[in-house]
Design a protein that fits this description.
With about 400 residues, the protein is mainly alpha-helical. The protein has a domain of about 100 residues. A three-stranded antiparallel sheet has the order 1-2-3. The longest helix has about 55 residues. The chain is rod-shaped and about 150 Å long.
């Protein structure tokens, strides 16, 4: 663009110069302002070429002078940008290597010395202050970023730091300021609700989690199960509400032994022992879990012999299962079937000489008034317990 301007300017001056000239017999005559000058045509051509060169050089010098300031400013800006990049590189290195104490002091110094600080510097300074526990400085840097209107990522960064501090309510408040939700924001919101034990909200968020594909399907299942169990354990639900939870639960959730165990315990607490037994029986009909067998033995206390018969039927597929033998011993003891109870406990002890079976045998012998044998089993229980603690 500057070259075109230079050529046009040179052409204009040449045209203006020639327009004053009159040609006659190889002589160039100039008249103007009361003067008259004659040149030979050769001298005129040389003079014209010299004038063109002079004008061209003058325009180049003028162009350089005008652009030198702009170039200088661009150079200074480039140098400043390079320094910022080097500072950010060092800051990221300190952040990764956990040198946050050095990073915090350096960032604070840079912010105090410079009136204009980049968004990245403020974010790193906020993170360093957070790690070092200078929460007031962190909040100050976040406030500056908010005033600069730097967008949703500032609120997300704030939420991530607040959740580490254990301020789950404030974490949710920061996330709700975001204009647009994302996979990261939904994931943080889920974690804040989970850590805050707001199980109802966790279950509500599961739909958004799946929509954004924020976590893996296995993690999704694990958290959903945790939330359902959390709601059930709170025991603030009525019997119809518990049955509704079972109905709404996915097939995979209903197939979890921890879900079956918790539901059964809730049924027991609500007085519906029949439902508590049935849900365990339905599960053990197609799968197996030792904890459910132990729970079934406790639930069936005071019930008729049908529960015992069902449990003994499981021996066909689990003949050498210590948990089942232990449960059968408890169920027989509850029904005063002393001989069968002792047989099951002895069989369990032969397979798994645990402290628990010694304790249950001690209780059985005490009920049978075999006090010396009860004392021996109680001492054995203490020895086995001590061995467990010594291994830990």
């Amino acid at each position: 663009m500057r070259s075109i301007f230079s050529l046009l300017a040179i052409g204009f001056f040449a045209f203006a110069f020639v327009s004053f000239a009159k040609y006659s017999d190889g002589i160039v005559l100039f008249r103007g302002f009361g003067y008259q000058v004659e040149f030979s045509l050769t001298v005129f051509v040389i003079f014209q070429i010299a004038l063109i060169v002079f004008l061209y050089l003058s325009l180049r010098i003028l162009s350089f002078v005008l652009s030198s300031k702009r170039r200088l400013l661009a150079y200074l800006k480039s140098r400043q940008g390079q320094r910022e990049i080097l500072k950010l590189r060092d800051a990221i290195k300190n952040l990764i290597t956990a040198e946050t104490s050095i990073l915090y002091k350096q960032s604070k110094k840079d912010i105090q010395e410079n009136t204009k600080v980049s968004k990245e510097t403020l974010l790193i300074a906020a993170k360093a202050a957070h790690v070092e526990g200078y929460y007031s400085d962190r909040d100050s840097y976040i406030t500056q970023l908010v005033e600069l209107n730097e967008g949703d990522d500032v609120y997300l960064a704030q939420a991530l730091m607040l959740i580490e501090e254990g301020r789950y309510h404030d974490t949710l408040a920061a996330l709700h300021k975001m204009k647009k939700r994302s996979a990261s924001s939904v994931r943080v919101e889920l974690e804040a609700s989970r850590l805050g034990r707001d199980w109802k909200q966790v279950l509500v968020l599961m739909k958004d989690i799946r929509k954004f594909d924020a976590i893996s399907s296995d993690d999704c299942h694990r958290i959903e199960l945790e939330a359902i169990l959390g709601r059930l354990i709170n025991r603030d639900m009525s019997l119809p509400e518990v049955k509704q939870v079972i109905k709404q639960a996915s097939k995979r959730i209903r197939g979890e032994p921890s879900f079956v165990l918790t539901i059964s315990k809730v049924f027991c607490s609500l007085g519906d022992t029949i439902a508590a037994q049935k849900i365990v029986e339905d599960y053990l009909h197609s799968a197996w879990d030792d904890d459910l067998v132990k729970h079934y033995a406790q639930v069936s206390v005071g019930q008729d012999s049908s529960a015992l018969e069902k449990a003994e039927g499981w021996l066909v597929s689990q003949p050498r299962n210590p948990a089942l033998l232990m449960g059968l011993g408890v169920m027989c003891r509850d029904r005063e079937l002393w001989g069968k109870s002792e047989s099951y406990f002895r069989a369990c002890d032969a397979l798994d000489a645990s402290a628990e079976v010694a304790y249950e045998l001690s209780k059985l012998f005490k009920m049978m008034n075999r006090l010396e044998e009860s004392r021996v089993q109680l001492e054995l229980f203490a020895v086995r317990q001590a061995m467990i603690f010594s291994k830990e």
